[in-house]
Amino acid sequence: MNKTAYKRRVSLQKKNTRLATCLLVPATLVLLAVSIYPVLSSLWMSFTNEHLLRKETNFVGLANYARLLHDSEFWGSVGFTFTYSFFVVAIAYVCGLALALMLNRKIRMRGALRAILLLPWVIPPVIAVTNLKWILHDQIGLINTTLRAWGIIDKPILFLAQYGLIRPTVILASAWKQLPFMMVTLLAGLQSVPTELYESASIDGAGFFRKLFSITLPVIRPLTFINTTLSFVWTINSFEMIWLMTGGGPSGHTFTVPVLSYYTAFFRNDMSYAATIATSILVVLLLLTLLNFRVQFGKGFEGLGLGGRGKGEAA
Amino acid sequence: MKRFRNLLVLLTAVLLLVSAIGCAAPAAGGEAAAKPAEQSAEKPAAAEEAAEKPELTIWFFPMGLSGPYDAACQAVLDAYNAGDHGATVKMEILGWAGLNERVQTAVASGSPPDVWIPGYFRVPEYVKMGEALDLTSIVDKWKETGDPILDEFQPGMLENGVFDGKVYVIPFATSPKTMFYRADILEDELGFKDLDKGVTFDQLKEICAAVKKSHGDEGMYPLGFFSVDGGTTNLMLNALFSNGASWVNADATTGGYDDPKAIEAVQFIKDLVDAGYVPEGIASYNQADIDKMYQSGKVAMIWKSSQHDPASELYKKTKIMGPIIGPSADKPRLVTWSDGLMAFQATKYPEEVKEFIEWFVKNSSPILNDGATTYCPLRTSQQDLDVYKTDWLLSQITPMVEAYTELNWPAPVSPVCFNQVFFEGTIGKPLEAILMGATDVEAEMHKTNEEITNLLKTVG
Description:
heterodimer, A: about 325 residues, mainly alpha, 14 helices, about 0% strand, flat, disordered C terminus, B: globular
């Protein structure tokens, strides 16, 4: 490369860098304003005693975090948050995988089925929850009236009015909402599994489950990990499904950490304590996100000591 | 290609311009267009004058049917804006969804409206925050000039807005909670009479039993109410007040749930639940659920807020029951949620705000009369408005004025923590637990009593 060409290339690179920087500035500013600033502000608030009923706000150090350690309501909500998130992701994964396996086959109406199964994801949560509540209604809901008409039950099932059922109901509803995401991503993963592997396994006499556990699941394991981690983070952070279905009730029975934080801020006016609750869950989410990043862009499964195999080793 | 691009840019610009003009059109454009032509000549001068005046904002709650209510509110403000006043006022009608969050966020960020019409129970919190504007000068002026309006307010209502010797809220209107019932079933078919005179706990049980016997097989339940979105709080207050008990004691220092009268009232509700007089899943019902149940003929009575539904055929067969009266009641009581005019300290124009509030209190009757609201009057002179004689619903509730009992009863004013106990649903917790299957009424009442007492001590 001659000197002039080299100079021109360097100049072009500089121009590109400048343009890239200019293009990034607006998005960065928006991100700082709507995302980073609130996080930092919330973090700072958690070290103060800001309360809407108090005219002065003072720095109180770690007092709010100390209060958090002895707050049974908070720990109860942490427990339910993790239970809720675990079951939502697990159910969505298992059902999503089953549907993805079905849609990965050459079946009739595959396109239409894909579109229909995507619906829960597309429907806005408010509409979805309103409809779900009607479907689950004890007197005029579709499920109860159908089961009664068929003589399967005498008394209605109280999905949202019985302590033993209310938590499973919100878990199932949230899993239903999240299922299409799992299904679509897993379907993409399944389509990348080399068909030769299945052909070889078939020649060796492997059945459906043998192929599933020895070929499919190992090959899509990295995707599974990323998928479930991301879903777990989203579910921990999710607010609208529980808020719309139960409002955290009855008597805090379905409080997740985000709902408790919201409740503390807007109904108890305790802004600092709400920020402390939000910050505590932020730490967990950050750790999960870091883990996900490390798998996605960094060391892979081996680096994490998770015992995964590289691409192409599954066979 | 270049020509096409230029055309596209031009089209976009035109669209933006059209949108901007559309957005800038006045909200009450229809009314403005209907005004006589001669007024339009005066408009430039009036607009110029209006532009110099400060603009105040008032927030209304959606207390009437959308359409007539919006128009009635706007008409009152138009009348104010057309007069010789120190400010102009624009309105915003809030929706019920996320209302508390909206208000708290506005207050916390220092951008509340100038004026709003909240429930009395909300005001003490804003007084404690230092956010409420002192309106004492309005009342002082009325006293100095011997204004007859002072004698028109329902007894105790003006005093109900006084905190630390200052007036922070001026009475506007009230909303009693009542029992709606299917007159065709209870009166015509089952023969119950004089239900508007009041119904005792035993009579109510008797009515429930009769409805269940005659219509239970068709899947009809005798009684309904709503539980979520503050429903159990509503029901709890209705039950307590019916039996001469309350959620708070007379000096607002402890909860009122250890009172045997309160326990008796809740036990009464539990008896109704246990007897199968309410739908099994009622613990999860919101207002829309129970309305739908009533309209589909699945419940014969609903105990809740007043509601207009002129479109429904069923409401033509509906009547309002008199107060429910428990065995320990001192007198018949109907829970009333009163609203008043309050202003925020953050306003830039406190004097204009006070002038507007005074004007509004005296001139806002058209909202009650024409707004298809469920508001009952808090002033004696307003009882003569046409709507209180002709409206099927309000004409039945208004005569029960003797039974109206404010939420803070027997405390002289609402405690500061009421806003929190209401929105958190603390008041209704024992009923919530019972509807979810709890059996020990006393234990549930005691638990919640401690919670309320603690809030009264810590928050006020």
